[in-house]
Inverse folding.
């Protein structure tokens, strides 16, 4: 195998190998499912399998020249397509690589190197917000030439939902060649947001779903990386089978507990300075990047989930923030009327409002006030952006 | 030759083989028969229904010398070269990658030259909706009056993105979604010719999931064949397509109704961790609840739900009504629409299920009606639809002519409105009907009903009703009410069937009372922790 530490999705992998062995591998595959499940790593493994020179085992050997080239992204048969920063003055016929600055190029090279080593790495260029139509045109010019190597040619489209963002130009440009590619050419589209993609693209692909990783697997993965078992347990639960998240949460456990404290204190005690602390924290996180803020809300939502589960089932096995159990008990006694499910939804709504650039102090205050009502068992009218 | 997927391998080569689109293929064949082939066609329809395929067949048919029943022969040099995509007279252009005006200019240049071998030069522009505006306009003249040997076939999934000027210059053919029966037939045909064993029910499942697109169905079939190696049965189909077994949903429904929340969560956990996407789960759940609902309502739905579910529903016939299922479906459908915007979909789903589990069982409407008919009439508030009816009636009332026309409505109204029968009104009746009256008033004037919101009916004498307005800002309120008192009187008349005059009274304490209240309010503000905090923080003072 190319990656030694990849958590293999046995079922999908066996299915793909069976299809490959019987010569029935579809020319257009769509790997979809939540992010951080190793979809692109599986795609790279498949690319290696198609080109591996060692025929003794069905898995790629990881040692032959071909596998080594795949690992370092130097194989002529493996073509990578990525979202690039948009550039308005890009000529129709110029290659897509011209959209990158020198700094982007070096960072891309670095990131590709890391990706060859680490299975759960995600390549992200600065301001990369679309897959350029030039990338697709490049692809077409290239694919109709004969492949540089025997074996199968693989086109790997990462973050494929960007084919359709901001408009579906690139997706449409891909349609014809995706339906009828030249011989021995295989497309693998990797996406965590298949709902954003065109129906015409989806209908041309075989869809292979990668479910969230089992929490136990993440737990042992983290323990192998040197995390303490208790922390690993918490992170595995909190990341919901998403390895990207788990990686980011590593070493953050005290901070996570601190987040929960900030949120719960603001909700349960009506002191103005705690509200202000909450609000300041969110605005600080929002400025330092959207992802940080998402993590903050995620911890809050999980804390309420703990409360919901405790209140509804009385069962402690599902509790994520184990150290908080005592606090939870006292809270549950204090607010027996509370509707915890509603709290979760209020928090989720607030997050979506902030993401839609709602006025932050207003959103936070409205959320906290509504929660105050919900805690007393009153109904609140929910406004949400979605429906 | 590497493996060709089923949808390419079984791409139809004759008009008859394009299933589900008889209206198109018959028209085209007749056009060939009568030698009335138009110079421009546009094929539109959803994905995977045969647009590109028909375009290719048509281009072969008009160039073939040995037509067989107006189908291309498939054997002559022209047909063969078109099938292999190397005929220089039939150009298949990808409209999405060659979308600029320069591409169209090239095309126009080329269109001047007569075909090298066959009768026609055919331009198939696939995904034509992606052409730029300039490119479309550059095409207009050529498309309207091309040289006699040129035929344009445009194919698109989004005809609304194609300008009207293009559409009006071409013959438009709308391709339909393919019916389930047709898809099943085609799948059967292919499985037989490929020599695979299969269960009949599987095909139904695939056809259902394909949603009218044959290519979708064939992709799925391909996947199932490739991943199984053996006989195609229900279980493999479900696991490949990511569907949930009905028995699991039944178990879940059972837990939901007996309110075993721990088990609900456990079942959800095991189902999701077996590799089911949340969207697929929701989709299946809604489908299941819908089918149960149809069954419980007495619809013939024995095909879609299995025997154990039917049995389960029959057993609980008394306790679980259509209304319960409807409420579940209402919640879960709402959830499904918002699902893709959720940041934490799994927690959302857990919350939804717990909410459903803690729902109170509904009461059958018939029981409710029975209870109501036993209770006294005056407590009965008008039933919703009747109220609607009254509202519309009210609008009609403004013009006196139509009043006689709606005679049957009067009897209905008399039954519904308890006030109507009693000719002598009293304060009590007005008071008890006050809220209904306000609702009716709201349909005429929102402002007035709002002004009267906190009011109280004091007395009713000699057809004059006295209304008390609460102290707060009553001077302004009374003024605005008096301005429109005719409207209020008119609505009073239609509601209570009697001419009534109104008189507004300020609250007993009058202006003084208002000021008093204000004072106590200010005191409240002074002592409020937030304002104390503010004063302390900003070192300020309270001015007023």
């Amino acid at each position: 195998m190319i990656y030694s530490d990849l958590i293999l999705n046995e079922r999908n992998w066996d299915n793909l190998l069976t299809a490959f062995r019987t010569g029935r591998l579809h020319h257009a595959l769509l790997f979809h499912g939540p992010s951080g499940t190793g979809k692109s790593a599986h795609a790279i493994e498949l690319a290696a399998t198609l080109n591996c020179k060692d025929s003794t085992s069905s898995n790629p050997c990881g040692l032959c020249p071909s596998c080594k080239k795949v690992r370092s992204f130097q194989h002529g048969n493996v073509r990578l397509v990525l979202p690039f920063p948009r550039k308005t003055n890009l000529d129709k016929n110029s290659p897509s690589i011209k959209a990158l600055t020198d700094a982007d190029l070096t960072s891309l090279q670095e990131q590709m190197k890391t990706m060859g080593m680490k299975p759960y790495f995600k390549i992200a260029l600065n301001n990369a917000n679309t897959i350029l139509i030039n990338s697709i045109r490049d692809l077409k010019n290239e694919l109709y030439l004969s492949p540089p190597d025997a074996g199968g040619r693989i086109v790997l489209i990462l973050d494929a939902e960007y084919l359709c963002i901001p408009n579906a130009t690139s997706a449409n440009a891909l349609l014809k060649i995706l339906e009828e590619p030249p011989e021995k050419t295989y497309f693998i589209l990797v996406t965590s947001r298949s709902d954003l993609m065109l129906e015409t693209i989806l209908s041309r692909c075989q869809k292979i779903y990668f479910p969230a990783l089992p929490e136990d697997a993440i737990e042992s993965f983290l323990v192998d990386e040197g995390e303490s078992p208790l922390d690993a347990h918490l992170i595995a639960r909190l990341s919901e089978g998403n390895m990207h998240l788990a990686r980011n949460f590593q070493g953050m456990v005290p901070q996570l507990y601190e987040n929960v404290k900030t949120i719960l204190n603001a909700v349960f005690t009506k002191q103005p300075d705690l509200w202000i602390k909450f609000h300041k924290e969110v605005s600080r996180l929002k400025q330092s990047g959207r992802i940080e803020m998402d993590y903050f809300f995620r911890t809050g939502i999980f804390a309420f989930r703990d409360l919901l589960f405790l209140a509804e089932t009385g069962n402690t096995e599902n509790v994520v923030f184990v150290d908080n159990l005592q606090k939870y008990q006292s809270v549950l006694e204090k607010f027996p009327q509370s509707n915890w499910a509603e709290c979760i939804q209020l928090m989720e709504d607030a997050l979506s409002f902030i993401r839609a650039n709602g006025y932050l102090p207003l959103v936070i205050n409205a959320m906290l006030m509504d929660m105050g009502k919900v805690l007393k068992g009153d109904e609140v009218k929910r406004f949400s952006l979605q429906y | 030759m590497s493996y060709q997927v089923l949808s390419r391998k079984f791409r139809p080569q004759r008009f008859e083989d394009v299933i589900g689109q008889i209206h198109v293929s018959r028209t085209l064949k007749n056009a060939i028969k009568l030698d009335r082939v138009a110079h421009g066609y546009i094929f539109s329809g959803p994905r995977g229904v045969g647009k590109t395929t028909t375009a290719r067949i048509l281009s072969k048919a008009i160039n073939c010398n040995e037509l067989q029943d107006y189908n291309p022969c498939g054997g002559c040099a022209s047909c063969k070269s078109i099938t292999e995509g190397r005929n220089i007279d039939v150009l298949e252009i990808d409209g999405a990658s060659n979308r600029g005006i320069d591409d169209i200019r090239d095309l126009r240049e080329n269109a001047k030259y007569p075909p090298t071998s066959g009768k026609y030069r055919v331009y198939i522009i696939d995904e034509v909706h992606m052409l730029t505006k300039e490119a479309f306009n550059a095409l207009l003249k050529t498309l309207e009056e091309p040289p006699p040997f040129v035929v344009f076939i445009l194919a698109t999934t989004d005809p609304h993105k194609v300008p009207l000027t293009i559409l009006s210059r071409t013959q438009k053919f709308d391709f339909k979604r393919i019916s389930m029966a047709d898809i099943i037939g085609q799948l059967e045909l292919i499985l037989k010719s490929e020599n695979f064993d299969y269960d009949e029910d599987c095909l139904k499942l695939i056809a259902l999931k394909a949603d009218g697109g044959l290519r979708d169905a064939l992709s799925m079939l391909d996947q199932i064949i490739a991943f199984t190696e053996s006989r195609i049965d229900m279980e493999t189909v479900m696991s490949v397509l990511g569907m949930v077994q009905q028995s699991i949903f039944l178990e879940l429904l059972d837990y939901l109704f007996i309110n075993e929340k721990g088990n609900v969560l456990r079942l959800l956990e095991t189902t999701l961790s077996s590799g089911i996407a949340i969207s697929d789960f929701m989709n299946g759940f809604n489908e299941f609840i819908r089918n149960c609902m149809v069954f419980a309502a007495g619809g013939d739905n024995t095909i879609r739900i299995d025997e154990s579910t039917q049995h389960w529903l029959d057993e609980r016939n008394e306790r679980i009504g259509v209304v319960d299922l409807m409420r579940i479906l209402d919640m879960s459908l709402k959830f499904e629409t918002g699902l893709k915007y959720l940041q934490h979909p799994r927690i959302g789903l857990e919350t939804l299920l717990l909410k459903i589990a803690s729902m109170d069982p509904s009461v059958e409407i018939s029981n409710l009606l029975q209870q109501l008919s036993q209770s006294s009439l005056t407590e009965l508030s008008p039933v919703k639809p009747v109220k609607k009816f009254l509202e519309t009636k009210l609008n009609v009332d403004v013009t006196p002519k139509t009043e006689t026309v709606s005679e049957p409505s009067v009897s209905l109204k008399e039954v519904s409105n308890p006030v109507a029968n009693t000719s002598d009104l009293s304060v009590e009746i007005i008071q008890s009907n006050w809220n209904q009256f306000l609702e009716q008033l709201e349909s005429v004037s929102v402002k007035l009903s709002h002004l009267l919101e906190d009011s109280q009916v004091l007395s009713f004498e000699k057809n004059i009703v006295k209304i008390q307005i609460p102290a707060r800002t009553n001077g302004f309120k009374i003024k605005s009410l008096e301005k429109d008192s005719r409207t209020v009187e008119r609505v009073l008349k239609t509601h209570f069937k009697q001419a009534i005059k109104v008189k507004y009274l300020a609250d007993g304490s009058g202006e003084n009372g208002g000021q008093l209240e204000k004072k106590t309010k200010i005191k409240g503000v002074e002592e409020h922790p937030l304002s104390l905090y503010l004063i302390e923080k900003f070192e300020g003072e309270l001015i007023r």
Q: What stands out?
A: The CA atoms of residues 3 and 80 of chain A lie 18 Å apart. The longest helix of chain A spans residues 290-313. Chain A touches chain B through 65 residues (CB under 8 Å).
